[in-house]
Amino acid sequence: MSNEMRIPRGSNQNYRLPEAWKEVDGFSKVITNEEAARNDYNLSPSRYVATNEKGEYLPIDEALVEPERIEEERKETDEELNEAMRKMDYDL
User: What is the pTM of this model?
Assistant: First the structure.
């Protein structure tokens, strides 16, 4: 635990005092007991913290073609590299 957190002494449990709590967008949220009760005491972070990140998904038909396209590009690049090496009289 960091030194900036004040931990009360004389308790069997360690907890942070409320003034040490802070929210960080996309990472943490401070909630009240009432809010926790409204959510059946579900403390799952995803219930309270939204990442707002929308992942980009490739349609399946494009995803299946992508490896073939990359392999073709690799072959063309290899051929160009081999041709350049031959021009420099490099023995392959």
Answer: 0.37
